[in-house]
Design goal:
It is built from five helices and no strands. The chain has a domain at 265-304 and 311-372. Residues 1-5 have low confidence and may be disordered. The chain has helices spanning 2-102, 112-171, 195-302, 314-376, 382-385. The protein starts with a helix and ends with a helix. It is an all-alpha fold. Helix 1 (2-102) packs antiparallel against helix 2 (112-171) and helix 3 packs antiparallel against helix 4.
Length: 388
């Protein structure tokens, strides 16, 4: 009996040693397998965190680029608005010049200056429509960029949260105090998106931002060169053309005024000479009238002689001849006066015509040489027309 018990104990001890070895071997294999799985998953987590970090940095860079571009485009919008306000000043200058020239007394405003002013008016309307269209398109583009930035910030926020979660997972180990058995932790994500689709979605957003930035860079050329710079250059060139033509018009009008003044002076001199001549003739007629009175008085006195003493002699003949000569001279001088008075009327009408024309030219000179330059001296500079 004793031997049987010893044999049983020996067998049981051998079995226990075998089982213990098996258990230890199993534990070792489980531990190795678990360590391998943990290292593998940790490597996955680290690689995934690096990818998230890279995407996060790219998104941050794009947000920064969008911020800079939005600020730049807001400046361009302010330039367009300032250019629009400055263009209104140009329009008022143009309208005032046209209005002043339409008040000319001679109505002589359908000239080269008027044509250039009308061209400037059409150019102002064209520039205004371009600025308005540019503002509308830029505003729409800014809304797109702001929406894209908002969407990108949301993606960046998700990436930050995702990165922080994965960093927390990487920093966890078996000795961490915040590890717990959590109910429902093994649930699968309620989404059909795969890893490739996730990356493709981010790449599509990045490509959209890249396209948006390229379009924005293209608008720099359109706004700066084709709208602001080109339009201010056109307006300044047209303004210079008008200023040059106004200057020529002023000089021409000034020369015409000088000629008219000379002509008027000549007419006045002629008028004075004719008046002096008429006055001299009138004095001569008065002298002849006195002579005629004298002759006819002598003849009348001779008729008072007694009838026996009256006879036709040389004295009577001489007095009669003198009377006839004086009357002929008087008639001749009176005809001269009539002719001179007709000439004087013609000269007077000529003088009125010249004075009226001179008045019109002076009015034109005052408008083209004084009022319009005073108005156009306030024409905005090229910098102001560009909105700066």
């Amino acid at each position: 009996m004793r031997n049987s018990e010893d044999t049983l104990i020996e067998c049981t001890s051998n079995n226990f040693e075998i089982n213990l070895k098996e258990i230890n071997n199993a534990l070792k294999s489980i531990l190795v397998e678990e360590n391998d799985i943990q290292r593998k998953n940790l490597s996955y987590l680290q690689n995934y965190a690096k990818i998230i970090h890279q995407w996060k940095n790219k998104i941050e860079n794009n947000i920064h680029l969008l911020d800079e571009e939005i600020i730049y485009q807001l400046e361009r919008r302010n330039y367009l608005r300032k250019a629009t306000v400055t263009l209104k000043q140009v329009s008022r200058i143009n309208e005032e010049c046209i209005w002043y020239r339409s008040t000319k007394l001679d109505g002589d405003y359908h000239d080269e200056v008027e044509k250039e002013l009308e061209k400037e008016k059409v150019l102002i309307e064209e520039v205004n429509s371009q600025l308005k269209l540019g503002l509308e398109q830029l505003q729409e583009f800014l809304e797109k960029m702001k929406a894209a930035k908002l969407n990108l910030e949301l993606i960046w926020s998700n990436k930050i949260e995702n990165y922080n979660v994965e960093c927390d997972n990487i920093n966890l180990n078996q000795l961490s105090k915040n590890t717990l058995l959590k109910y429902g932790a093994t649930r699968i994500f309620n989404t059909d998106i795969t890893r490739k689709e996730w990356e493709r979605n981010i790449e599509n957003n990045m490509n959209y931002i890249k396209e948006l930035l390229c379009q924005s860079y293209d608008t720099h050329v359109i706004i700066n060169d084709h709208i602001l710079a080109a339009n201010q250059r056109k307006l300044r060139e047209q303004a210079q053309i008008i200023d040059i033509i106004l200057m020529k018009k002023k000089h021409n009008t000034e020369n015409n005024i000088r000629k008219l003044e000379n002509e008027l002076q000549e007419v006045i001199n002629k008028q004075c000479k004719i008046k002096n001549t008429i006055e001299n003739i009138n004095n001569e007629i008065k002298f002849l009238e006195n002579s005629l009175k004298l002759t006819e008085t002598r003849l009348s006195n001779r008729l008072q002689k007694p009838l026996q003493e009256q006879f036709f002699d040389e004295i009577q003949n001489g007095l009669l001849q003198e009377d006839e000569i004086i009357k002929n001279q008087k008639f001749f001088l009176e005809n001269k006066i009539l002719n001179l008075e007709e000439i004087l009327k013609h000269i007077f009408s000529q003088r009125i015509k010249i004075e009226n024309e001179l008045q019109l030219k002076l009015n034109s000179f005052w408008i083209d040489g004084n009022q319009c330059p005073k108005i156009r001296i306030h024409y905005p500079s090229a910098t102001s027309l560009s909105g700066y």
